[in-house]
Amino acid sequence: xxxxxxxxxxxxxxxxxxxxxSKSLVVTELCYKLPNFGDVYLxxxxxxxxxxxxxxxLELSPHQEPSRYTVKVESPRDLNVLxxxxxxxxxxxxxxxxxxTPGPYAQGVITTIEGFLHKAKEIVEFLLSSEVDEExxxxxxxxxxxxxxxxxxxxxxxxxxxxxxxxxxxxxKEGVPTKIIKEPLASGD
Length: 189
Ligand SMILES: [Zn+2]
Hints:
The chain is 19% helix and 38% strand. The chain is of the alpha+beta class. The protein has one domain (11-184): ZPR1, A/B domain (Jelly Rolls), CATH 2.60.120.1040. The protein has a 5-stranded antiparallel sheet with strand order 8-7-10-5-12, with no helix packed on it. Strands 1-2-3-4 form a 4-stranded antiparallel sheet, with no helix packed on it. A hairpin with a 4-residue loop joins β7 and β8. 25% of the residues are buried. The protein binds zinc ion.
């Protein structure tokens, strides 16, 4: 995974933990400058009393409208496209059978499309380990096979990220002509 090369300058402060109410939540704000895009603020919080952890995307400039990005992954180089995902965004990879919805504990993250493939693999492996139904087990194994092929760059697929908050963005890798479509996200979609 390659993050922007410029050194982020962290800002840190202590706040009240939403989980245990102790005044021991250390909040760190990092500002990343993304090439051809602008500033992204990554917030990470960690409580030394109860172990509560949360990360999220704070703010982007300029402010964004609810949006959907569709990325056509057609070469291994497209896997390096940078994705900023806020905690309210859904990620769908239809050909791979993968949907990641924003749950109450969803985290904001800055990673690559390849990073999402590894994350999806972790989730499916976890589901598989607790699955008893043979048919659903087969389906998990099938998805894992396709994820492995996608990670190796042998499978073309579509990567879609939808964010009602508009904070999520897809940033193309410099010099790589990845097909990225950005469109407004209509309510009711
Ligand atoms: Zn706590």
